[in-house]
Molybdopterin molybdenumtransferase (Ferrimonas sediminicola), 599 residues
Amino acid sequence: MNVDQILADCRVPVLGICAYSGTGKTTLLKKLIPELNRRGKKLAVIKHAHHNFDVDIPGKDSFELRKAGAEQMLVASHIRRALMAEKVTDGDPDLKELLGMIDQDRVDMILVEGFKKLPLPKLELHRAEVGKPFVFTRDEAIRGIAVDAATRLPDDLALPVLDINDVDAIADFIERFAADWKPVGYAPLGSCGCDDVERKQLSVAQGQARILAEVKPVTATETTPLLQAQNRVLGANIASPVNVPQHTNSAMDGYAIRNDGQHDSFTVVAEVLAGHGYDGEVQSGEAVKIMTGAPLPAGVDSVIMRELATQEGDQVRFEGAIETGQNIRQAGEDIAEGATALTAGKRIGPAELGLLASLGLGELPVYRKPKVAVFSTGDEVCQPGEPLKPNCIFDSNRFTIQGMLAKLGCEVVDLGILEDTEEAMAEALQAASEQADVVITSGGVSVGDADFIKPVMERLGHIDFWKIAMRPGRPLAFGKIKDTLLFGLPGNPVAVMVSFMQFVQPALRKMMGEPDWQPQMMRATAAEAMRSKPGRTEFQRGVMQLNSLGQLTVTTTGAQGSGILSSMVQGNCLIIIEECQGNVAAGESVWVQPFADLL
Ligand SMILES: Nc1nc2c(c(=O)[nH]1)N[C@H]1C(S)=C(S)[C@@H](COP(=O)(O)OP(=O)(O)OC[C@H]3O[C@@H](n4cnc5c(N)ncnc54)[C@H](O)[C@@H]3O)O[C@H]1N2
Ligand code: MOO
């Protein structure tokens, strides 16, 4: 696990303190912690112990109950609580898990003692008399070193050097470290970096980055009537031509008054319905009966809801205190005239449609839809609706791909199933690349013999055949014929959909003008054990739901073969098991990517 993965869930700075035993680490920490407390920093400390330690005292109830077999013993008073949990691990305890046990809402930083081998940012402590080598010479994560007077350091040392006896200076260093610290962004699709060089595979994130680097957003826009702009991408910033709401108006059915504290009873002088106004100016002691949404007459500053009013004849009285300004919606409080209501690149959904309608706009500039050509290959692939030939299968990939393209709002050109000959492929690919912005095919990108698609792609354009460290979806072809992007997705039906979600979707969204689009991802608790090989990102199909405790949990849909398309139907999300994560035990957390974006 690399350091970013260890620190991925940390919301407060984490600094290691490393030293050989005898350096006086604890002595220093005993002075440093009160100094940092004095400076307003609340600390958590994690200490690595090498032996079978105990924190409880024989004879105490908690000790006896734990010894009697309680897996977890939580002892708590109104002052302090301590959880003692039995957990035997093969090697060192897992620092990521330990960090997760700290209540990060209650501390400003975490100091970690021990875990010397982890590439965690650290402060090294060194005393010459201990007679041990420096750590910084072999650990690039050392951020500073505190030494005694007898220590000789190299002249050209590029690290901050502190006096190990100067607690103030060390506290300053730690405060600076904390001030400069930034949380690690989450990168569930990144590489764990274990064996990048040997494996000759790309991580999902590397594949995505290479693809995105080749994508040019469309710039041409067209004007479309408002309702037809649904699921299109806005082609220009929209400045509001009006205030929304246009008029300062009442938020309640009730009475509008001037709240000057002069009167207990008010004379009702008029009634204003929504869509109407009151031309006069309301005077002190007067009230206007008003409906929700009706423009506020001149002279009033507060509205009292009808339920608190008692009207007898033309006199009205109110229960309770009146706060000046209550129940009034100010003109322009949602969107002020001239303000940017929506920016170019926004995908228009029902809320955006409503908002644009509230500005009074009848038509909109939107980016041109990208044109995407789709075909299937393979002699075994048959058109649904026609008789199935012996030893063949029906083409499902062209339908999942077109379905996802339609959801994204692309213009689709269906080229059908191509005959598996070199000429047919070449002709179709050439023609497709001339009319489309993107060509997507499925199948034939692995190492099989009967595929002409590879040599044809290589002849007509520039194509790379990648192996992505993921499952499903390992083989992926990506390239260009002139300016047209070409995606060769793997043939297996689930692999097609997963590769589309991870690689084609971000590319198309960038092309459509949605800048910096990011998929929705959430953390969920695995409700069952899940298998995955470290070194590749595993995308399992999952069903996420809230359990009775309100936690987001996820189970797999069962068999995970990359031909089992029903898993995509049963699931509502992809479960992402990160490259380094390996097998997941029930109760551990995983990332989930809901299908909602696309499926
Ligand atoms: N020796 C190796 N064999 C395979 C490897 C490998 O690395 N070495 N990778 C496996 C993986 S992973 C995948 S995924 C597939 C991808 O292979 P291709 O992209 O070459 O796809 P095909 O061999 O043409 O087909 C695979 C599978 O998908 C079915 N298929 C193809 N098109 C459609 C379609 N339009 N609709 C429905 N199903 C389709 C096809 O019948 C095959 O069953 O390769 C593995 N093998
Ligand atoms: O891409 Mo393949 O689907 O991993 O079997």
About this structure: The first helix runs from residue 3 to 7. Residues 471-474, 490, 492, 495, 562 surround molybdate ion (ligand 2) (CB under 6 Å).
